[in-house]
Amino acid sequence: PYARLLLEALKQSGWYVNEFVLVYVVTSLTVFNDRHFSCENCDGCVSGGFDAATSQIVLCQNNIRQQSHMNRVVTHELIHAFDHCRAHVDWFKNVKHLACSEIRAANLSGDCTLMNEIARFKFGLKGHHQTCVRDRAIRSILAVRKVSKETAEKAVDEVFDACFNDLEPFGRIPHSKADAKRAYRDFQNRDRYTAN
């Protein structure tokens, strides 16, 4: 449901036709896997990436070992694709743009669900989700850009509130697959009542 919602949002944005070339078939979305997804061996602990220049999502086959992990990586990278389309992100020159997209991806992709955090042996209740999102955004910036940790932390801190509260296209933080399904249904019905 996460990917379906994001693919539908890309389609409705208009970027779908020109950039990502997704094809709507009956009731499901199909992506040209050989064009828009690439499975590669990656260095370090990176699980995937979004290449804005080629509109391609890279999945790191040597670092993804479970289907649930791959689902989160695809969702995370589709959020970057959505941000690229919607906000015209300057990935290489503006670290605040990158920070914002990383915050949104960590917040909305399921990276920081309670179960994932327990699996990482990270525990906490009050404010833990926000802490996880902040930490993962900083980690992602450091993995893809040669900037100091202080620069990454400063960029994340400066845009955190606005980007954490930007829940498009989900409308809510999907803490589970059931939440993502509800968000997808809400997204499909979003313009239903305002169209008349």
Automatic annotation (TrEMBL):
Q: What is its EC number?
A: 3.4.24.-
Q: Keyword Magnesium, does the record have it?
A: no
InterPro entries linked to this entry: Peptidase_M76_ATP23
Give a GO molecular function annotation for the protein.
metal ion binding
Show the GO cellular component annotation of the record. mitochondrion
What processes does the entry annotate via GO biological process terms? mitochondrial protein processing; mitochondrial proton-transporting ATP synthase complex assembly
Q: Which UniProt keywords apply?
A: Hydrolase, Metal-binding, Metalloprotease, Protease
Which protein family is it in? Belongs to the peptidase M76 family.
Q: Please report the name of this protein according to its UniProt entry.
A: Mitochondrial inner membrane protease ATP23
Where does this protein come from, organism-wise?
Answer: Lamprotornis superbus
